[in-house]
UniProtKB/TrEMBL annotation, chain B:
Subcellular location: Cell membrane; Membrane
Source species, domain of life: Bacteria
Reactions listed under catalytic activity: a quinone + NADH + 5 H(+)(in) = a quinol + NAD(+) + 4 H(+)(out)
Annotated family: Belongs to the complex I subunit 4L family.
Membrane found in the keyword field: yes
The UniProt record lists the keyword Cell membrane: yes
Main function: NDH-1 shuttles electrons from NADH, via FMN and iron-sulfur (Fe-S) centers, to quinones in the respiratory chain. The immediate electron acceptor for the enzyme in this species is believed to be a menaquinone. Couples the redox reaction to proton translocation (for every two electrons transferred, four hydrogen ions are translocated across the cytoplasmic membrane), and thus conserves the redox energy in a proton gradient.
Keywords noted in UniProt: Cell membrane, Membrane, NAD, Oxidoreductase, Quinone, Translocase, Transmembrane, Transmembrane helix, Transport
Protein name: NADH-quinone oxidoreductase subunit K
Mode of membrane association: Multi-pass membrane protein
HAMAP family for this protein: NDH1_NuoK
EC numbers, comma separated: 7.1.1.-
Length: 522, 98, 646
């Protein structure tokens, strides 16, 4: 009891906050709060005009601040050890901000988001709101909160901050998933499922955190790692805690057997939100996975690696095999995302000495950039192929798209080839970097499974290409909507990134190397 | 002493988890998730006492705040889908499958 | 044998420094450019295409002549000149530097190819004057000349192989030149496919050489040939022989040559008599250090040659189609050359000498046959000729001179070169010498018979013409080449053989023949040959000169039928190769469909089926997802505990 209150009341030292180092996050959260105020006070017709520049500018500003921080070179732990400012986190922040920027460019509240979320689908209320031209502009501040959460989640240096980041990231996404303008039943269903399962996984994460706290007496990642060295006889707490913590994180990256939500949610959510989740959330979740397993549980790697092997193999195989029989384009991309999460996990497993860790980390960082751009581009193309009922999701509707719109179909085919990891696309170097690291980390069997899965996966990517180019278009087939400048720009940027990273990957590889050089601060 | 709290906490967590698995009403399912969070809170506070530092107690407060936010979001979603489908059963929402 | 040989070919290959030799690549480039211009230019070049093609061939001939004289100006030891062109295939260990080798052997061929080739180009101007596709014809001829020159001038086996395939392509295109005739199209395909068998052997032979010596260039291979094991050299020799058999229509790959006569007659003269079909002889002579190290392969060459010279001669006896009779004769004569080449250093130079004289007289006779066909409305049946000597005097005289040359009438070209081969064959030790020599001797008699038969049926006797035939002498553009080739048929042999001129010229390449005493006109073998030749001519006169020739062919004895059917070569091919091949194909298709495809499709179906079943797990119920998460969490925790407590 006497040790319970180490410091007498009234002498709690005031916490120090390094505002400059947290500036990117602060800017995003600040803009989100301003967005809420805009919702509250700005007249309805002005909101959209305020939100779009506000959101984009804050993201661009945060990106610029991240660059400044990276150039500045200070690497430490900010906010009383809650947030790490180091090479990987800055790289991941930059990636998330850019991917979020292009995802937000896809937002088009009149096309994709519901006019009034509270109205019942098919009711007169909904018709009225549609006639009125109402729009749900809350999507912008909600997205900003989610993005801010991603930044915190991926840079958190203690488990509490990570939990808060996880929730701040997830809660707005639960809502955003239910805001699709068309097929509202599916969208709402996606929201319910995502929310319930997400909350369930958060509970696992939280309980795992409690057990780890019980083991180590602290939730600080570095202190947990230190405690691993001093055997304290509470191993069960540690192992179960680590497992539950892992479940929460693996759920977010969509690793099997925690992948079940991904296809349903990706299919039901509005496509720009799917793009944001498939790129930003995945990047942030991998940042968190790396931090927990490399920093907090780094000395435990002999124990978690075999389990992670199983998870990675299962994830790759399930993602690749289940994608084959999918008939919905977004669902297929969701399974593709699962398979890619598996490929990335092979990099997470490839730990070893510092040089080995650096190689693996650099490979993962490059892969995240490459995959993020390609996936945002692919979902952007999905938003453009529309028919009377909204987006033409069913694969059969895509038949003959190559004849109707050769350019768009060609770009989409290129994205698919990048997913498959064909040389001269970014996907090739991404896979190469991660698999090479895994091989030198001694995970050759895993890489073999990865390559076989890639081959299976290539089948369904090519199947879509064949469908687009070698089938005759249906007479009432979907049209390609090129009215949105933002969407066209996203497709162009993503295609350019996929090409450049596939042909001239060296600058980004160098950047990833530099970011991985000092590894994580502890 | 601590062990008792931990056992209670584990029981609560298990009841919550099993509740999520077996209950159909979305509200009840959600309440079971809250039960799991509170089981974690109990464990945190018990460990804080065991370790003799305040971290666990502080975390418990954070968790409560987060849980409150989660309630807001969760109830919003569940109410919306209830209005749409006139049902709060999680088994009724299964259009998205295979 | 080897000691005699070692001295000569080991001489260093000098590098060309400027001069005509340095420009000898022009020989290949000029006709190649001609072919390219005519093919790319298309119809626009119709008006001058034939002139351009002929000019390119002539220009190439001029370069060859200049190179030849520059070579003559050097001492014998310095007559092997390399011309480096470019690095062709720099791929790891395989580094093929493309270059030319100008030596007595290759320049002899170059002169023959460009000289005879130019004459045939000129002849074709007249022969093809009514053909709407004359330009295309000349482009193919130019392509052929370029490829053939690459074949003989390259200084490595890869270059030779490219030329080898190039002449095969040109031959295919020219046999099938009149595509509207189904027989021509079929003949072209047959030639191509049969040649593939031979090319396969050549390719494997070259791979083996590369595997053994680590290079494909002649210089190092021949320098180190004696260091390789006899087994390897024998294998390579037999593989090269297979290639030679395909290209030179030797047994057992002879069947395509007779059908190849479907092509225009100048093609038959150039490709299927004078040049391309002799490529096999060139290959064996060029590879002499390999064959000298592999006596078994050498013997195989001689046997193939002896067998083919008899088979060709027998076929020639029974054919009523003038071109096919000449084609049988070509087979037979190339058999002589192969036989000579198979005799080792004693025979290489003689083989090439016979090759050159044969190039003249056979090309002349083919062109003469073309001239006759031209006069007889393209009828090739000799039973409908007769008495043509009066209406076509120039053709008759030039053809007659070629005839005298091929049967070995004393003083004419064939007399010198063929006698040398027969003598050299008898010069072999023991039974081998008698068998090979006997075959050659018998062949000479049969040659005299069938060639006399051809002469009598065509130019003598009564007229058996079709009613609408109005034979006339051909225009000068066609007769002049005949005259020039006839001059070669008359004097070529004496020029090359007397004083061992040609044998000495080739010495730096193929070595000095042992036991060679120069040409002896009154050697016993030579006298016997003359007697047999006279007997052959007399028999032919009795059968075809004295008696009238029936217009309808009599049924004839089984031997005649045997010969008419090309010694059942096609039937043998069909039953031995084609039928089993078809069975093999059917089996392969079956195996591919059921076995390989079955495996692949089964795998795909398995994955797809797994996918179809697994996706049922995605029930859409959030609670079942939660259940899978719950179990997943339990398994992860359990596994971690298990691993951690190990």
């Amino acid at each position: 009891m006497s040790t319970l209150l180490a410091a007498p009341p009234g002498t709690i030292p005031a916490p120090t906050i390094e505002y400059t180092q947290l500036a990117p996050m602060m800017l995003v959260f600040g803009a989100a709060i301003v967005g809420v105020l805009v919702e509250a006070f700005a007249p309805r017709h002005l909101r959209s005009a305020v939100h779009v520049p506000l959101t984009l500018l804050s993201l661009a500003g945060a990106f610029a601040l991240t660059i400044l921080l990276a150039v500045d070179g200070t690497r430490n732990v900010a906010a009383m050890g809650a947030v790490a400012v180091d090479g990987p986190s800055l790289f991941i922040h930059g990636t998330i901000l850019v991917l979020a920027f292009v995802s937000v460019l896809l937002f088009n509240e009149r096309l994709q988001f519901v006019s009034q979320a509270a109205s019942v689908p098919g009711s007169t209320e909904e018709e009225d709101s549609l006639e009125e031209g109402a729009v749900q502009t809350e999507v912008y501040p909600l997205a900003l909160f989610a993005i801010g959460g991603m930044l915190l989640f991926s840079a958190a240096n203690d488990l509490l901050a990570m939990f808060v980041g996880l929730e701040v990231m997830s809660l707005p996404l639960y809502l955003l998933c239910g805001l699709a303008r068309r097929r509202r039943l599916l969208s709402q269903e996606a929201a319910v499922k995502y929310f319930l399962l997400g909350a369930f996984s958060s509970a696992f994460f939280l309980y795992g955190m409690a057990l780890i706290y019980g083991f180590a007496g602290s939730v600080d990642l570095a202190k947990i790692n230190d405690a691993l060295g001093s055997a304290s006889g509470r191993d069960t707490l540690l192992y179960v805690g680590a497992a539950l913590l892992g479940v929460g994180l693996l759920f977010k990256i969509g690793a099997a057997p925690f992948q079940a939500w991904k296809p349903d949610v990706y299919q039901g959510a509005p496509t720009p939100i799917t793009a944001l989740m498939a790129s930003g959330t995945l990047v942030a979740a991998f940042g968190a996975v790396l931090r927990v397993f490399w920093v907090a549980l780094g000395n435990l790697d002999w124990d978690w690696r075999p389990v992670m092997w199983g998870v990675a193999i299962l994830t790759m195989v399930v993602g690749a095999i289940l994608a084959i029989t999918q008939t919905d384009i977004k669902r297929m991309l969701a399974y593709s995302s699962i398979a890619h999460a598996g490929f990335l996990l092979t990099g997470v497993i490839a730990t070893g000495g510092p040089a080995q860790n650096e190689e693996a980390l650099s490979g993962i960082l490059f892969y995240l950039v490459a995959y993020g751009f390609t996936t945002v581009g692919a979902f952007a193309v999905v938003t453009m192929v529309r028919d009377a009922g909204g987006e033409a999701g069913h694969l059969s509707r895509w038949a003959g798209l190559g004849k109707r719109s050769p350019l768009l179909a060609g770009v989409f085919a290129f994205f698919l080839l990048a997913f498959a990891g064909i040389p001269l696309t970014s996907g090739f170097f991404g896979k190469y970097a991660v698999f090479a690291a895994a091989v030198s980390g001694g995970a050759t069997p895993l890489v073999i499974v990865g390559v076989v899965s890639s081959a299976i996966a290539a089948f369904f990517y090519v199947r879509v290409i064949v469908l687009m180019f070698f089938s005759d278009p249906a007479p009432d087939g979907p049209t390609v909507d090129v009215s949105s400048m933002g969407t066209a720009a996203v497709v162009a940027v993503a295609a350019a990134a996929t090409v450049v990273l596939g042909v001239l990957p060296q600058p980004v590889l160098d950047l990833a190397d530099a970011a991985a050089h000092s590894l994580f601060v502890r | 002493m601590t062990t008792h709290y931990l056992v209670l906490s584990a029981l609560l967590f298990s009841i919550g988890a099993i509740g999520v698995l077996i209950r159909r009403n979305a509200i009840v399912v959600f309440m079971c998730v809250e039960l799991m969070l509170n089981a974690a809170n109990l464990a945190l506070v018990a460990f804080a006492r065991m370790h003799g530092n305040l971290d666990g107690q502080i975390i418990a407060f954070f968790v409560m705040v987060v849980a409150a936010a989660e309630v807001v979001v969760g109830l919003a979603i569940i109410v919306t889908i209830f209005r749409t489908r006139r049902s709060a059963s999680v088994d009724d929402v299964n259009l998205l499958k295979y | 044998m080897t000691s005699l040989l070692a001295a000569a070919p080991a001489a260093e290959i000098a590098q060309a420094s400027g001069g005509v030799l340095g420009l000898s690549w022009l020989m290949i480039a000029l006709p190649l450019a001609g072919a390219a211009i005519l093919l790319v230019g298309g119809r626009r070049t119709n008006s001058f295409g034939h002139l351009l093609g002929t000019a390119m061939s002539l220009a190439s001939f001029v370069v060859a002549v200049l190179a030849f004289f520059e070579l003559l100006g050097r001492t014998a030891e310095q007559r092997r000149v390399g011309v480096e062109l470019f690095d062709f295939i720099p791929a790891g260990q395989l580094d093929v530097k493309m270059g030319l080798l100008i030596d007595p052997l290759s320049i002899s061929f170059a002169l023959l190819i460009t000289g005879v080739g130019s004459l045939i180009h000129i002849y074709s101007i007249g022969y093809m004057s009514h053909d709407p596709d004359r330009r295309r014809f000349f482009s193919y001829l130019n392509l052929f000349v370029a490829a053939m020159l690459l074949l003989v001038l390259a200084d490595n086996y890869v270059g030779l192989y490219i030329g080898w395939e190039g002449v095969g392509l040109a031959s295919y295109l020219l046999i099938g030149f009149w595509q509207f005739k189904p027989s021509a199209a079929v003949a072209a395909k047959k030639a191509f496919i049969v040649n593939r068998v031979g090319d396969f052997g050549l390719a494997i032979g070259i791979f083996t050489l590369f595997a053994t010596f680590g290079t494909v260039a002649y210089g190092p291979i021949f320098e180190h040939a004696d260091k390789a094991s006899t087994g390897i050299l024998t294998a390579v020799g037999l593989l090269l022989l297979l290639g030679a058999c395909g290209k030179s229509a030797q047994l057992p790959l002879q069947s395509w040559l007779l059908d190849a006569m479907e092509g225009p007659t100048p093609v038959s003269a150039l490709i299927h008599a004078a040049t391309m079909v002799t490529a096999g002889v060139y290959l064996i002579t060029r590879s002499n250090p390999i064959f000298d190290g592999a006596p078994t392969a050498q013997l195989a060459v001689a046997i193939v040659g002896a067998a083919t010279l008899l088979a060709g001669a027998i076929i020639g006896c029974a054919k009523d189609d003038i071109k096919k009779a000449l084609a049988g004769s070509t087979m037979s004569q190339i058999g002589y050359m192969m036989l000579a080449a198979g005799l080792g250093p004693a025979g290489y130079a003689i083989a090439i000498a016979h090759l050159i004289t044969h190039g003249f007289f056979k090309a002349g006779m083919f062109l003469g046959a073309g001239s006759v066909m031209h006069a007889m409305n393209d009828d090739v049946n000799m039973r409908k000729y007769g008495g043509l000597r009066k209406v076509m005097p120039i053709t008759f005289i030039t053809f007659g001179l070629g005839y005298l040359a091929i049967i070995g009438f004393p003083g004419f070209a064939g007399y010198f070169t063929k006698d040398l081969i027969i003598e050299a064959a008898f010069g072999q030790e023991g039974v081998r010498g008698y068998l090979l020599g006997g075959a050659a001797l018998l062949g000479a008699a049969i040659t005299a018979f069938y060639m006399s038969r051809l002469m009598f049926m065509t130019f003598f006797g009564e007229k058996r013409w079709d009613k609408d035939a109005h034979p006339h002498e051909s225009p000068p553009v066609m007769t002049w080449p005949l005259i020039l080739l006839a001059i070669g048929s008359v004097g070529g042999g004496a020029f090359l053989v007397l004083g061992d001129r040609f044998i000495h010229f080739l010495e730096p390449v193929v070595g000095k023949p042992e036991n060679h005493h120069g040409f002896n006109p009154v050697a016993p073998v030579g006298l016997i040959t003359l007697v047999l030749v006279a007997a052959g001519v007399a028999l032919a006169w009795v059968m075809y000169g004295r008696r009238p020739v029936p217009v309808e062919a009599p049924r004839g004895s089984f031997l005649t039928v045997f010969a008419r059917r090309d010694l059942y070569g096609d039937a043998i091919n069909e039953s031995l190769l084609m039928r089993p091949g078809q069975w093999l194909t059917r089996f392969a298709v079956f195996f591919d469909n059921r076995g390989v495809d079955g495996l692949v499709n089964g795998l795909a179906a398995g994955v797809g089926g797994t996918s179809g079943r697994l996706r049922r797990l995605q029930t859409g119920f959030a609670r079942s997802y939660a259940l899978s998460m719950f179990f997943g969490a339990a398994i992860v925790a359990g596994a971690l505990l298990l691993v951690g407590n190990l």
